[in-house]
Automatic annotation (TrEMBL):
It comes from the Eukaryota. CDD domains: TY (cd00191). One of its GO terms (biological process) is cell-matrix adhesion. The lineage of its organism: Eukaryota, Metazoa, Spiralia, Lophotrochozoa, Mollusca. This is Thyroglobulin type-1 domain-containing protein. Pfam families: Thyroglobulin_1 (PF00086). It comes from Mytilus galloprovincialis (Mediterranean mussel). GO terms for cellular component: basement membrane; extracellular space. Keywords: Disulfide bond, Growth factor binding, Repeat, Secreted, Signal.
């Protein structure tokens, strides 16, 4: 935590620095015992002289965020990134190391302009904001995004090497993502795209449905949602035929569609079994073998009553605590 606070402090101070003549009034030039040359006015705000950095010493490769520079290398040397620079702490502040010019090709020089991957990595290294699904980019030796990246939820996925755009269809919850396949074939059908996008979505709503795709990637004729309703869709774009939506199975044959209908008792029971809404006096119907309402029904206040066998209309005059006598109701229905 302390290094992070120190970094943030340096960042804040560096951003606020403005070099004015008054800053050098009290500056004192200390005696220099340099191993190499002296850089005139190379100190803070140009107020004093400093020693040029020597081989292996920390230097300032490029300037950003108003940071106080680490110094320049002596003649015959260049400021290069350390090996494994993309993960090196010195990259956080744009720092490098002085290397002799004839050895510079052994290390990757820090470019004046960072790549998109390096920029994202730097920003996220100094940021204190973390969210669900946050990821720290991994860059290759050329500064491009590595094909596979992983987030803080242990999900791995494939990204574009230049922009870092995530291929949302490649998310995996365990193990490596198959980025070779992602690179080879980026074309997906609408059904496959819809399925892939819903795999990593945290949103759930009433009536949501996960598409079922056939072997060639088209929508299967029948789809079902999270309320227990099934319906028919078009094969290519998955447009729902609202007229076919029923509780239970929908008949989606290529011939004239005949919707499999349930009785009123069965429909009412299915709806209340999956509903999250409960109220005082609510009752879940009991249906007989033919799908009709059983004569006696009971609610959640332990009141029982008689209902019509076909449409479930309650005979309020029969409502009592515990068991209700519905024999007369049965007789009246039989007689009618």
């Amino acid at each position: 935590m302390l290094p992070l606070i120190l970094i943030c402090t340096i960042f804040s101070v560096g951003r606020a620095l403005v070099c004015t003549p008054e800053l050098c009034k009290n500056a004192v030039q200390e005696p220099l015992n340099c191993k190499g040359s002296i850089i005139k006015n190379g100190g803070f705000c140009g107020c004093y002289d400093v020693c040029a950095k020597q081989e292996g010493e920390e230097c300032q490769a490029h300037y950003s965020f108003g940071m106080i520079p680490a110094g320049k290398c002596d003649s015959g040397m260049v400021c290069t990134a350390p090996i494994e620079a993309t993960g090196h702490p010195m990259m956080l502040l744009g720092r490098g190391q002085c290397v002799k010019t004839d050895q510079a090709d052994l290390r990757r020089a820090i470019p004046d302009t960072l790549s998109a991957c390096q920029q994202m990595r730097r920003v996220r290294m100094i940021s204190m904001v973390v969210w669900q699904g946050w990821w720290m980019p991994k860059c290759d030796v050329n500064g491009d995004f590595m094909d596979q990246q992983c987030d803080n939820m242990k999900r791995c996925f494939c990204v574009d090497s230049k922009t870092g755009d995530v291929d949302k269809t490649t998310y995996t919850t365990l193990g490596a993502a198959n980025c070779a396949v992602s690179k080879r074939d980026n074309t997906m059908t609408k059904c496959q795209q819809k399925y892939a996008s819903m795999q990593f979505s945290f949103a759930i709503w009433q009536g949501m449905w996960y598409p079922k795709c056939d072997t060639v990637g088209n929508f299967e004729p029948e789809q079902c949602d999270n309320t227990g309703k099934c319906f028919c869709v078009s094969a290519v774009d998955g447009v729902v035929d609202e007229s076919t939506k029923v509780l239970g199975s929908a008949e989606c044959s290529s011939k004239k569609r005949q919707t499999l209908k349930k009785t009123k008792c069965q429909q009412m029971r299915d709806i209340r079994m999956i509903s999250f809404v409960v109220w005082k006096g609510m009752w879940t119907p009991k249906c007989d073998a033919l799908g009709n309402f059983m004569p006696e029904q009971c609610d959640n206040t332990k009141h029982c009553f008689c209902v019509d066998a076909v449409d479930g209309t309650v005979d309020v005059s029969t409502k009592v605590l515990d068991s209700a006598d519905c024999s007369q109701s049965i007789n009246s229905i039989t007689q009618s």
